[in-house]
Design a protein that fits this description.
The complex is a heterodimer.
Chain A lengths: L16 H10 L10 H6 L1 H4 L1 H9 L5 E5 L6 E5 L1 H10 L12 H5 L5 H17 L3 E4 L6 E9 L5 E10 L4 H10 L4 E5 L5 E4 L1 H7 L3 H4 L10 H6 L12 E9 L5 E10 L5 E7 L1 H23 L3 E5 L5 E4 L1 H7 L4 H4 L10 H15 L4 E8 L5 E12 L6 E9 L1 H23 L3 E6 L4 E4 L1 H7 L10 H7 L2 H16 L4 E9 L5 E12 L5 E10 L1 H23 L4 E5 L5 E4 L1 H7 L3 H4 L10 H12 L7 E9 L5 E13 L2 E10 L1 H24 L1 E7 L4 E4 L2 H6 L7 E3 H7 L2 H16 L5 E8 L5 E12 L6 E9 L1 H44 L5 H35 L1
Helix pairs in contact in A: 1-4, 28-29
Chain B lengths: L1 E5 L3 H13 L6 E4 L2 H10 L7 E5 L8 H8 L8 E7 L4 H7 L5 E6 L4 H10 L5
Parallel strand pairs in B: 1-2, 1-3, 3-4, 4-5
The chains are: A alpha+beta, B alpha/beta.
Chain lengths: 871, 128
């Protein structure tokens, strides 16, 4: 039996192959020379499946070839031996087998257990790619062997099933051993006279048993050869076996080759086994011939065919191989290790591939080879195990091809493909490539993204596309698509809304190129979908904006008009312009912008327009304009230069600021007054932002606090640093309170210390609030330096104190003597004369006292005035 | 009822004694040169059940009229005192201040006049 891993197919140039292959099967030769698939293609004869059938047919064992590519195990071929057997059994005609499921057919004659075993055998054969056998459970007379036959990809393509009779009853074997022996058996005496023969002897010699029993062995061989090489039969000893090859002569005169094995029997007779080896002999001749043929094939094919041993030492190589390795003769290279020619990066893989091949697993490898003269080539090798039919020695047969050019093209192709992929992925367009025949679409990443993650990339086709197109666009796009194909247009341009993976419809402009086949049928359409949603939206915005701008122009409360830059002619205006300048529309549109200026300013305009004005330029300044009635106006003019249909025009927005300019002057004055009064009053305004911790203030605050010179902004901490620590606590407390009472005004007094050490008294009036514009928490207020005022107040207090003293003197001191005088004089009116003198003395005393007191009052008063004068 | 004149001015005391004499209070009038002396008298007076009418000056040495008024507030005899402040001060603040003391029944400006004094005593129902 042969092993598929050792299977090598012959290649032949003549028709002798059938015979050869028959021979191979007859002799259960394990090795058939294999030539790679390209070579097989050249040798057409072997690529014909029928040849394989014939080869199987030639085998005398019952065999069935089963197609193993599917689980159907369909019967491909039933060989003659099996047919004979079946006919003999009278069970199946030939046609009831071929083309049927073998397991089903076999089920008619096999038990369920055996069918299961058979299925297992097939499955094992397919998976292991190795032959296996099993014995029937229910009928021990046979065993089944399944052989895998591989295709050139190394997959099991066929299973060859062979039946083999295995069981004979011992007696039957013994009985038939002699009669039915395949070999011819002769029993002779020591002189070669035949005393018994079996049936095979008659087949071998052509003589009947009866005729043979009258003959001598010498009668059956070539007499001339016998003369040259006499029989050794008489020299036979016990236990000695003589093997001899002789040229036999058949009864019909045909010459053949027999192999005879002779031994001495215990009864003195000689037992000779003869076997017709004519076929083997012829096969050897054929083998020699086929080797020559193979050699010839090897030499002629353009691939490198080489034989290496398991150490990768080169044993043989064909001419093409010598060319690849740049050797001038076989002698130069044979005996060397081929690894030396392999580029280092591929040495390991090469070794592994060839090692595997040596162990029976054929392989393929692409590698880089450096010839003996340094030329580098890309090679593809296929390696299979090879057994020398004669010597039985194992080698590795390598068939290697130069694929440098092919690889260069492949690389180029890959590069082009990569470039295409890069370009399609780099673009923001969704690229699609529709294979019309297969109705399959390749999509770039962008398109896949548009479809969304739920879309199977293999199912992007016409249906899934139209399913995504907006219902309102579907019919139009469908019609455009089909009409373009009908009219054989090579370009397709369409605009539609497409539903993306997230359910949103987006606008796309789709440009496609269509290719047709020779029959005018669409072959391929390559398209690019450009997302124009934003453009569409902007167009819509523009439409709305244009409408809005027209409305704004005509209904603007400020005068607006347009004039041509070329000749300064007014071409359009709004109602406000007419009202402001006092013209009718007809009159106004006959004017140039020079007509609405006082004559003194016309030259200024002309000079201005001598400058180069570009579209998009913008100008804003105050000009003097005049009304129809000659009244002059100060106009704040904003001009935008726009280009429409190649002509430059200016859009003017005019704002009459005559009044506001007056107001502005007033405001300036007011501000000046306020500033002055603040300076005089030592009053400064501040605003504190709670978020940024910054205080913005008016410049007077520098004069008051003497920090942040030249700045309009300071940090809160800078202010707090100059505040008296005791007062800072009060401020801090008030700060917290103010936050809880927004809008409430707080009056606080505190002391600060100037850099020169002088202590100043400040009054703060402040409140916390939310800025109505920014909605931020702020505090605002004023600081006023009241140091001078406080000093004045203290002086007044002191003065009051003095005045109090004077008042007291008036009440208690001045009036006391006076009251006395008054009391005494009252008494004098009523008292008698004897006391009068005493009373008058009292009055005199009181008068002196009063005089003294008045003088004291005058002194006090003088003191107050002098102190105040001093301050 | 005993009458006390508290004043550091002997002329004033003379004048006031003469006025009180005319209205029938002379026999029981005692005078003191300052508030302290008057206070000591009141604390030591054996006749603890007596009521006192006091003509009190404000501006005095040692213990002035205001000091005297403050001192008597916690004295057991304070409820038996009827005090007329007699001052040369025409300052309304002094008049106002005197009203704060419950024992003060009137404020008279110097010089003490018979008519004013009689009118005050009558209106306050002081039995002379």
């Amino acid at each position: 039996m042969f092993d598929i891993h050792n299977l090598t197919l012959y290649s032949f140039h003549d028709n002798s192959h059938v015979k050869r292959v028959k021979l191979l099967f007859y002799n259960k030769l394990k090795t058939i020379i294999f030539v790679d698939s390209r070579t097989i293609n050249k040798c057409q004869t072997l690529s014909n499946k029928s040849l394989l059938y014939q080869s199987i047919n030639a085998n005398s064992q019952p065999q069935i070839l089963i197609c193993a590519e599917s689980e159907d195990y369909q019967v491909e071929f039933v060989n003659e031996a099996l047919k004979q057997k079946l006919k003999g059994m009278g069970v199946f005609p030939d046609n009831s087998f071929v083309g049927k499921n073998y397991l089903e057919v076999a089920a008619h004659s096999m038990s369920v257990n055996d069918i299961n075993e058979l299925r297992k055998s097939f499955e094992e054969c397919i998976s292991t790619k190795k032959s296996n056998r099993f014995s029937s459970v229910t009928d021990p007379n046979w065993e089944s062997i399944s052989y895998p036959l591989l295709d050139d990809q190394g997959n099991v393509q066929y299973i060859l099933r062979t039946f083999q009779e295995t069981y004979y009853e011992q007696n039957k074997i013994r009985q038939s051993l002699f009669e039915d022996a395949h070999a011819s058996i002769f029993i002779t005496d020591k002189k070669g006279n035949i005393s018994d023969v079996n049936q095979a002897s008659s087949v071998l010699t052509g003589y009947s048993k009866e005729e043979l029993l009258t003959m001598n062995l010498a009668d059956l061989v070539d007499p001339e050869e016998l003369l040259e090489k006499p029989s050794e039969i008489k020299n036979l000893d016990n236990n000695k076996v003589i093997n001899i090859k002789r040229t036999s002569i058949h009864k019909n005169g045909r010459r053949g080759v027999i192999s005879t094995s002779m031994s001495s029997l215990p009864n003195g007779l000689v037992l000779a086994f003869a076997r017709d080896i004519t076929a083997e002999y012829e096969q050897n001749l054929a083998l020699e011939h086929s080797e020559k043929a193979l050699q010839s094939v090897m030499e002629s094919i353009p691939s490198c065919v080489k034989l290496v041993d398991k150490n990768l030492v080169l044993k043989d190589i064909n001419k093409s191989g010598l060319d690849y390795v740049e050797a001038s003769s076989k002698e130069e290279i044979i005996g060397r290790n081929v690894l030396g020619l392999i580029e280092p990066a591929y040495k390991k893989a090469f070794q592994e591939t060839y090692d595997a091949a040596y162990k029976g697993k054929s392989g393929r490898l692409v590698f880089e080879l450096t010839g003996l003269k340094g030329t580098k080539r890309w090679m593809e090798t296929r390696a299979v195990s090879f057994k020398d039919a004669r010597t039985g020695e194992h080698f590795i047969l390598g068939v290697t091809q130069d694929i440098t050019e092919q690889k260069r093209k492949n690389d180029l192709n890959i590069e082009v493909n990569e470039r295409f992929q890069t370009v399609t992925n780099a673009t923001n367009d969704a690229i699609w490539d529709w294979d019309a025949k297969a109705d399959k679409t390749w999509a770039n990443k962008r398109l896949l993204k548009l479809y969304g993650s739920g879309q199977d990339p293999d199912k992007i086709n016409r249906e899934t596309f139209f399913e995504r197109v907006h219902p309102d666009d579907k019919k139009r796009i469908y019609d455009v698509f089909h009409k373009s194909l009908e009219t054989k247009k090579d370009k397709l341009l369409s605009e539609y809304r497409f539903r993306t993976g997230n359910g949103e419809y987006r606008h796309f402009l789709d440009r496609a190129l269509i290719k047709y086949d020779a029959d005018g049928k669409p072959l391929r359409i390559l398209g690019a979908m450009q997302d124009i949603t934003e453009i569409k939206r902007n167009e819509e915005k523009l439409k709305k904006s244009d409408k809005k701008h027209r409305y704004l122009f005509h209904n603007n409360p400020l005068p607006m008009f347009i004039y041509m830059v070329e000749d300064l002619r007014i071409t359009d205006c709004n109602q406000a312009s007419l009202e402001k300048y006092g013209y009718t529309r007809e009159e106004f549109l006959k004017l140039t912008i020079k007509d609405i200026r006082p004559p003194s300013e016309v030259d200024k305009i002309v000079a201005e327009f001598d400058k180069k004005i570009e579209a998009g330029d913008k100008d804003n300044r105050v000009w003097t304009h005049c009304k129809k009635n000659g009244e002059l106006m100060q106009m704040d003019i904003t001009v935008h230069i726009i280009t429409h249909e190649g002509e430059k025009s200016a859009l003017v927005l005019a704002n009459d600021i005559t009044e506001s300019q007056k107001n502005s002057e007033e405001l300036k004055k007011t501000n000046h007054r306020l500033k002055t009064s603040n300076q005089i009053a030592h009053l400064g305004y501040w605003e504190y932002d709670f978020e940024t911790n910054k205080i913005v203030w008016t410049e007077e605050l520098y004069d008051i606090l003497r920090i942040g010179a030249g700045r309009t902004e300071v940090e809160l901490e800078e202010v707090m640093a100059v505040v008296n620590p005791d007062d800072a606590i009060i401020i801090q407390k008030q700060y917290t309170e103010a936050l809880q009472n927004l809008g409430r005004t707080y009056h606080t007094g505190f002391r600060i210390t100037w850099p020169n050490g002088e202590v100043r008294n400040i009054i703060s009036v402040s409140k916390a609030l939310k800025d109505p514009q920014t909605n931020k928490m702020i505090a605002e207020g004023t600081f006023q330096d009241v140091t001078e005022r406080l000093r004045q107040l203290k002086a007044i207090e002191k003065q009051n104190e003095q005045f109090g003293k004077i008042a007291w003197l008036q009440s208690h001191k001045v009036r006391a003597p006076l009251a006395r005088i008054m009391g005494l004089t009252a008494l004098l009116k009523h008292d008698n004369l004897k006391d009068q003198k005493e009373l008058i003395d009292f009055i005199h005393k009181s008068s002196e006292e009063l005089d003294e007191i008045i003088k004291e009052v005058v002194r006090h008063t003088e003191q107050v005035s002098i102190k105040e004068m001093n301050k | 009822m005993k009458t006390l004149i508290v004043d550091d001015d002997q002329i004033v005391i003379l004048i006031q004694r003469k006025i009180l004499e005319t209205i029938g209070l002379n026999s029981t009038v005692l005078d003191f040169g300052d508030g302290h002396k008057a206070l000591e008298f009141l604390r030591s007076d054996a006749d603890a059940e007596s009521e006192y009418l006091i003509f009190l000056d404000i501006n005095m040495p040692v213990l002035d009229g205001w000091g005297f008024l403050n001192e008597i507030q916690n004295e057991p005899f304070s409820s038996r005192l009827k005090i007329i402040v007699v001052s040369s001060s025409i300052d309304p603040a002094d008049r106002k201040k005197s009203r704060k003391f419950k024992q003060v029944i009137g404020y008279l400006e110097k010089p003490l006049e018979k008519s004013n004094c009689e009118k005050l005593l009558a209106s306050t129902k002081v039995n002379v």
